[in-house]
Each structure stands twice: as structure tokens, then as C-alpha cells.
């Protein structure tokens, strides 16, 4: 097989066979195909697209390019959840203990943030003592004993994806539906999931800026999940404004605790029920989404989910007493309100730029090497569609420097107050096939 012939085939709109795709992924991972040829193929895929069979072959080849985690010694159906990215997305912190408390085994490997906001690992590390590095043996033991553990992704998971993503990043080929779908699904499959729930975000703060693209990505991932023998469902959720009220690592842990105490913001709670009920159905702990939602609601109302979160923190070496006193996590030196300059209705709260503002405070990374300040971030007091009086606090800025004029200016630029505005739908669609 020659790479140049395969590039030509894709360039001319042909379909690559499973063997050809395996060859490309193996040879590229082993550094036997140079970046310039791979770049040409990526661009051809960008323009010519791929069939479901090609995407499935690409997904499996990338999943098998490194370590594949074997979770078969854990009883039950292991369901993983993945979000295609958002701002202030606290759902994993809530869902892991919530679904575990109704008997769904959660063996979750999470990443740090790809973009400029902290990832689940960064959030968990704002809990004093919490260990995100466990041996695979210990990880499996915890899930068997306690139904839940959340750890960092091991270094050798889907190395082909890691190498390809870096190349896509510098060749303007990230934004391709077959490439995004295979990238995400390869990591989920390598992490050992039997079933997968996808949160495909759409809007300013997401990869997919419009609903039509989000729908295509969601359908593609659900189809290839099935072709790869992993039951898969998806929710298309709105990311035009941030989810919940907290953006920033400690602030989001506090928000997760409050949600598990039954005091969470309405949108975040609803998102957790929507995604959580899919997880419960895929794990076969309920027959219908409605029945699953009822189980989750009972676990939240009874305090079982909150207790499970404490157990998870304790199991992973963290200080579980913060669950009873979450305000101990709020250690930023300064708290300043951002007052509304006029009365009206909030019409825009642009997720992307709110994420950037939180990063500027230190809640996220500008470069991969940056350290994170867990204490800082934003707490929203008003969301799109809410009435506002001049002088109302739109949000509170938690910072460790007094000089935040630049952040305030950015926030004012991307928060719009107008005459009429409607709350956007939280969930656009639920895709089960
Ligand atoms: N997230 C991923 O993991 N891969 C992509 O290609 C895009 C988003
Ligand atoms: Ca949030």
C-alpha cells in the first residue's frame, strides 16, 4: 500500500477500506508516514467527508493504537459520559456520584481542559488532598466497592488521536465532523466504556456554532457508537450562555455540592437529569428515561447522591468535610460585583468570552504549561431572559488581584442588556438512534 495512492483516492471522493484506514493509522502512529502526507489526507477528508463505515474504522484504529482499558472485572454496564465542550460545565462532578448512587458503575477517566477553562480534573484538584492518579488496579477496586472513581487519563490512551489532533490543530482541519467524531469516540472506547452518553453542545461557547452541525455530529457519533458495538445516546444542549452559575474550579465544586444538596441552579439540575437518565437507561437500571429520572430524583432528594460524593472524595484521599462546609473552598482574596449599567432584560451572556474572562483571572490555561488558580472565577447572578434593574449585580468576580479592569471591560462587552429577551432552550434535541 502506498500513502500517496490513498490520498489520491480520498481526494477524488473515494471510500477507504477498513484495511487501508488501519494501515494509515498504524503507520502514522509509528512515524512511518510523514506529517506532510497525513496533512494532505486530513484536508482531503475535510472536503470529501467519510462514510459511517470509514469513520467507524478510523475510530477503532485510533482506539487500538495504544492502551485499551479493560473494565470487564467491574460488574455491570459501564457507561461513560462526554461533553464536546462548554463553559461552566459542572455536570461530571454531579453526575458521577448521582448515577453511582442508583447503582450505575462509574469508572471515569477525565481530562484537563482542552481550551481555556479548567477540566474536570482541575476542578477535582481544588478539593484538598484529592488524588486523581490511581493505579488501574486501585481504580477498578474502588469502582467495584463503591461504584465510582474519577481519575486522570493515562498517557498512552489513543496515542494516534493525540498525534493527529496536534496535526489538525496546525493544518486547519480540527473542524471536520468525521475527524471530531472519531477523535472523541476513540478515546471513549479506549477508556473501556460499554455505553456512551454524549453531550453535544452548540452555540458561541461550543465547537459546533450552529444546531445543524451539532445535529450532524451527534447523529454521526451515535451511529458509529452502534457500529462499534457501544450503545450510544446524545443530548444536543445549548452553550450560547454558560451552564449553571459558577465558572471556575472551586466555584464549580461548590456549585456541584449545592446541586447535590438540592439547591442547584435550574438549568444545571435539568441537564444532570437529562444526561443522567440516559446513563441509567444504558446501564439497564431503568427501562425508560422517565423511570430513570425518577430514580435520580429520589437519590438527590434523599441525600444518597450527596453521601456518595463524600464517599468518592474520601476514597480518593480528599477532605470530605468540605461537603458540609463548601464555603471553605472560596479563598479568593477579592470579591467584586459587576453592576448593571442600565435596566432591561439580559439578552446575551456570551459563553465563549465569559470563559476567556475566567481564564484571564487565572481559572484556565493560556498555554498547556500554565498553572491554574483554583480559587478564582465568576458567579453569575442573572441569566438570559431575566429582568435587570440598573445597579443590580450581574455577577461576582472572584480574583486574587485587585486590578481587574481589563476583565470587567471584556465582561461588559459580552453581556448585553436590551428590551426583550427570551431564555434559550436548554436542550435542543435528544438523540437515541
Ligand atoms: N474534542 C476531541 O476530543 N477531539 C476533537 O477533535 C474535538 C473535540
Ligand atoms: Ca457551572
UniProtKB/TrEMBL annotation:
Recorded GO CC terms: cytosol
Domain of life of the organism encoding this protein: Bacteria
The protein's matches in SUPFAM superfamilies, at most eight in alphabetical order, are given as: Nucleoside phosphorylase/phosphoribosyltransferase catalytic domain (SSF52418), Nucleoside phosphorylase/phosphoribosyltransferase N-terminal domain (SSF47648), Pyrimidine nucleoside phosphorylase C-terminal domain (SSF54680)
- What Enzyme Commission number(s) appear in the record? 2.4.2.2
Q: Which GO terms describe its biological process?
A: pyrimidine nucleobase metabolic process; pyrimidine nucleoside metabolic process
Reply yes or no: does the keyword Glycosyltransferase apply. Answer: yes
Enzyme class, first EC level, given as a word: transferase
Q: Which InterPro entries does the UniProt entry name for this protein?
A: Glycosyl_Trfase_fam3 (IPR000312), Glycosyl_Trfase_fam3_N_dom (IPR017459), Glycosyl_Trfase_fam3_N_dom_sf (IPR036320), Nuc_phospho_transferase (IPR035902), PYNP-like_C_sf (IPR036566), PYNP_C (IPR013102), Pyrmidine_PPas_bac/euk (IPR018090), Pyrmidine_PPase_CS (IPR017872)
The entry's keywords: Glycosyltransferase, Transferase
Which reactions appear under catalytic activity for this entry?
A: thymidine + phosphate = 2-deoxy-alpha-D-ribose 1-phosphate + thymine; uridine + phosphate = alpha-D-ribose 1-phosphate + uracil; 2'-deoxyuridine + phosphate = 2-deoxy-alpha-D-ribose 1-phosphate + uracil
**One of the record's GO molecular function terms:** thymidine phosphorylase activity
Q: What does this protein do?
A: Catalyzes phosphorolysis of the pyrimidine nucleosides uridine, thymidine and 2'-deoxyuridine with the formation of the corresponding pyrimidine base and ribose-1-phosphate.
Q: How does it assemble?
A: Homodimer.
Which PANTHER family would you find in this protein's record?
A: THYMIDINE PHOSPHORYLASE
- For this entry, the protein name equals Pyrimidine-nucleoside phosphorylase
Q: Which organism is it from?
A: Enterococcus saccharolyticus subsp. saccharolyticus ATCC 43076
